Amino acid sequence: MKIFFVLFLFFCFSNAYSQTDWVKWEKAELIYLEDNGQLKRDYSISGESLSEATLNSLASVYWFFISDLDGDNCPFKPSCSNFFVEAVKETNLPQGVLIFFDRFTRDLNIFSRANKYPRFGAKYYYDPVSLYTLIEDKIHYLPPNTFIKSE
Amino acid sequence: MTKLTLIVLSVTSFVYAQTIDSNSSVLHRKENIIKFADHLFCEKDYLRSANEYLRIDEALRGDVIDFKIALSLSAIGDYSIAKNTFGQINESSAYYSLSKPEIMKIFFLEEEYSELRKYYSAHNNLSLLQSESPESKLYFVSYLKDNENIPSLQDFTRPFNLDEREEVNFLHQMKADPPSKSPITASILSALIPGAGKIYTGEISDGVIALITTGLFAFLAYDNFQADHNFRAWLFTGLAAMFYAGNIYGSYSSAQLYNARIKFEFNLRLDSFLKSKNYFIPPYEFCE
Questions:
Q1: Which residues in chain B are closer than 8 Å to A105, comparing Cβ atoms?
Q2: pLDDT of A24 over the 60 cut
């Protein structure tokens, strides 16, 4: 009887050992923190030029004293403040300011967002700077309500 | 005794299983590999069907198998090898004429439109362009994708049959005269009346908001100047000026975005038309 039991165990173990697919059914490491853009902010006050350092300092002050306390309220991705910083970095200060004021005007329009912008995650509208630099090759049109996973 | 028999049986079966020469198995004979590859091909499992066909020795394959390998590779996006394989099909073969539109389709999918037209010119008489062949149709449709001067509507639509002509007419018109908006006109309109450029590009609510915002800050500036509150007056003047200038800039980019949307929708419609027609290539009878 013992030998049957040993043989049975041997077959069971050899079969079980050869089934390596079970690895993928392991418990996943879930992260319950919300993926919040505010957590990824770069509060540095340095920059490649004086204007960039000034801009980063102003943005960091705004984030630290106002935006972080107020909460994640901007409906867009990147948020208006990040958009401004990115616009200046991608173009220049005067053009970046114009791009920002245009974004700010669009931000005030609460009526037609849903049918205009692609979606970023569950609650943001995706509106990258590259669409507004006036360089046609950088414009990659995405239809409204397309879901974007990462920038 | 029973235990010993069982042990011997299990050990023998293990040893026997390890000694089977898989290459001599009936399953790995050429005709069975072809049967299995054909099955995979008809199930549209093109990656595995190509791998199965490629197991057959090159000298023993024949044109049908080479053609199916090329079709499978084309279907999985391995375009350069697929193009070479189609190109190796002998001129005397019945599959030679079928391989030409397939090569042109690959050029199309690779977005090599001028190469596609060069290939057509090198392998066909240009007087055949008016015939209803898949090659002629792909030759003309390639003009819808790049920036070359598009042929006249009469020449363009001649190879297409009546079912296709209505859509081709529309696509030709969209390409020749796209309903785009001028960024400069949009900027000028916004310079004259804040928000008018946005309304011109179809962003009506953005235009109205721009008009209200600029107007509101301009009024606040005027009102504060009237009341001799100079600091506030200049602050609101600056804000009104920035919203005004931002709106002119935004109208320009809004027209660019509008044109990008028109182009996107045109390409979407063209791609969907070509897919529905299988790039004008008639279906093969391999899986019937």
A1: 206, 209-210, 213, 243, 246-247, 250
A2: no
Is residue A44 assigned to a domain?
yes
pTM: 0.79
- Tens digits of per-residue pLDDT, B228-283? 999 999 999 999 999 999 999 999 999 999 999 999 999 999 999 999 999 999 88
Instruction: Name the residue range of residue A59's domain.
Output: 37-148
Instruction: Please name every residue paired with A124 in a beta bridge, in sequence order, or none if there are none.
Output: A120
**Interface predicted TM-score (ipTM) of this complex, two decimals:** 0.76
Q: What is the pLDDT of residues B50-74, one digit of tens each?
A: 999 999 988 888 889 999 999 999 9
**What is the per-residue pLDDT across A131-148, written as a single tens digit (0 to 9) for each?**
999 999 999 999 998 998
In a domain, A110, yes or no: yes
Rounded to 5°, angle at Cα B220 from B217 and B224: 140
Question: Number of structural domains, chain A?
Answer: 1
Instruction: Kindly report the nearest CA distance between residue A138 and chain B, in angstroms.
Output: 11
Domain ranges of chain B: 26-110, 111-177, 183-273
Cβ contact B260–A141 (<8 Å): yes
A61 touches chain B (CB under 8 A): no
Q: Which pLDDT belongs to residue A37?
A: 63
Can you tell me whether residue A125 is helix, strand or coil? strand
The pLDDT of residue B146 is above 90: no
- Cα distances (Å, whole numbers) of residue A103 to A62, A98, B115, B242, B243: 18, 9, 42, 12, 10
| Of the partner residues B6, B7, B246, the one whose CB lies closest to the CB of residue A102 | B246
CB B219 within 8 A of CB A122: no
Tell me if B56 sits within 8 A of B30, measured CB to CB: yes
Q: Please check whether residue A58 touches B, CB under 8 A.
A: no
Q: State the nearest Cα–Cα gap between B216 and chain A, in angstroms.
A: 13
Q: How far is B246 from chain A (nearest CA, A)?
A: 4
**Domain B26-110, second-level architecture:** Alpha Horseshoe (1.25)
For CA atoms B224, B225, B230, B231, give the dihedral sign. positive
A9 falls within a domain: no
Q: Which of residues 94-113 of A touch B (CB under 8 A)?
A: 95, 97-102, 104-106, 108-109, 111-112
